[in-house]
Design brief:
The protein has helices at about 5-15, 20-35, 35-50, 55-65, 70-90, 95-105, 105-110, 115-120, 120-135, 155-165, 170-175, 195-205, 215, 225-240, 250, 260-275, 320-330, 340-345, 350-370, 380-385, 395-405, 415-425, and strands spanning about 180-185, 210, 240-245, 285-290, 310. By secondary structure, it is an alpha/beta fold. It is globular and about 65 Å long.
């Protein structure tokens, strides 16, 4: 790799200061220039979590997504970057020019010629866009329930008491005058199964499931992002009962005090309006969201009636770790693998860590097979060797989360996290 020592030094600096966005962007640009789009993509994801309105990060992310074959994401990043550029230019003009740019909705200016040619006149264009979004926003039947999730009994019990129990007993809800709606924010270290839990929750409720990502909402034209969000909620209301799942909600619902561009603030305001407003009937629409950074989520989103319940999703327990290991080894040749022993040695590992462990063990077995020119299965020695090189990735998250749990625990929102930190002697 070109300038490998320089990149390694910069990566070491990032480990000391993970919040340095400019440093991550510099490393990502070097990695892209060297052809390592996958490594650049990891740094850019973190950078966009911290600064979703950074145009340089969006431009680099579009390049990385192109190289990785993620064309839809690349297009979304370019659209958002163009929208932010348009807003910056508009802010530099006087009031008259600004009014002309922002509020003159001439088709020839707002819609590229190629799009107009495809969709025809304006009415046909709107219909075609709606048809297209119907295809993009596909509702799923999860096909599994919480009982199919191995281990994690504490999480399932808290989920049942705080969210599922009332929702599954409509008679009791009617008796107590409770409405069939709700919102839940899942938070915790990355790679611990928040999305999987959300899908299982939809299966438990017998509801349709719709996962909403950043690229489904953000658009380069002013006002279109808010319109996309409104259409998503309207579709969910027509398909109720439905679980709407917003992954990485801190990107869409970032604290407005941290946002520098009104384009992002408008999305936050629209999300608040859809969750709880006079004109929104969300009966039968259950909103679930997940984040690794709950402290970056706008406090208005956690107001009662919106995402008013929070659930900590911790690294998988021993039964869950065994199930995850078994899943990742199901199609690989193994010989006398003691999953219980491996699960015991991987306390604190996330699901992503365990998947990486299986990959590493398989690589060791494959390398020896190539050296001996004879295939052999994966053995316990491979796992023991791989374990010496791996450490739980969640530790860095707990280091950051500890400060918020200790000094920003308004209303006891992080009491659950504090209890875990005390049990694990991380305080």
């Amino acid at each position: 790799m070109k300038e490998e020592s320089v990149i390694n030094a910069l990566v070491a600096a990032i480990e000391n200061d993970p919040a340095d966005v400019s440093l991550r962007l510099h490393v990502a640009s070097l990695l892209l220039a060297d052809g390592d789009a996958a490594a650049a993509w990891e740094h850019l994801k973190v950078a966009l979590e911290q600064a979703p309105d950074n145009r340089e990060a969006l431009t680099l992310a579009a390049q990385a997504a192109d190289l990785l074959g993620r064309l839809q994401q690349a297009t979304a990043y370019r659209r958002l970057s163009a929208a932010l550029l348009n807003e910056t230019r508009s802010a530099k003009k006087d009031d008259d020019e600004d009014e002309e740019i922002l509020f003159e909705y001439d088709d020839s200016r707002q819609t590229p010629a190629s799009v107009s040619t495809i969709f025809g006149d304006s009415d046909q264009r709107v219909d075609s866009v709606l048809d297209e979004t119907d295809e993009i926003w596909e509702f799923e039947d999860p096909g599994f329930r919480l009982a199919d999730v191995a281990g994690m009994d504490d999480v399932k019990q808290r989920l049942e008491l705080a969210f599922l129990g009332p929702m599954k007993n409509p008679k009791l809800m009617n008796y107590f005058g409770k409405r069939l709606r709700g919102g839940l924010l899942l938070y915790g270290p990355p790679g611990c199964g928040k999305t999987f839990i959300a899908r299982a929750t939809a299966g438990e409720l017998g509801a349709k499931f719709l996962s909403v990502g950043l690229s489904d909402v953000l658009d380069m034209w002013l006002g279109n992002s808010e319109q996309n969000l409104h259409q998503i909620f309207e579709r969910a209301r027509r398909k109720s009962p439905c679980v709407l799942f917003f992954d990485e909600i801190d990107a869409l619902g970032r604290k407005r005090s941290l946002v520098r561009h009104s384009a992002i603030s408008g999305v936050v305001n629209q999300l608040l309006a859809e969750l709880d407003s006079v004109g929104s009937n969300n009966e039968g629409v259950f909103v679930l969201a997940a984040t690794n950074h709950p402290w970056d989520v706008d406090t208005a989103l956690r107001r009662p009636g919106r995402l008013d319940r929070m659930l900590l999703v911790l690294p998988p327990d021993k039964p869950a770790r065994e199930a995850i290991l078994r899943f990742h080894l199901r199609e690989r040749p193994v010989d006398k693998i003691d999953l219980g022993a491996i699960a015991k040695q991987t306390e604190g590992f996330s699901g992503a860590d365990l998947a990486h462990l299986c990959e590493s063990a398989a690589e060791l077995a494959m390398n020896e097979s190539m050296r001996l020119q004879e295939p052999r299965p994966i053995r316990m020695d491979d796992f023991n060797q791989a374990l010496h090189k791996l450490r739980p990735s969640a530790r860095a998250w707990f280091e950051t989360a500890r400060n918020f749990a200790l000094f920003a625990n308004e209303g006891g929102i992080y009491d659950e996290l504090l209890d875990y930190l005390k049990r694990e002697r991380l305080l």
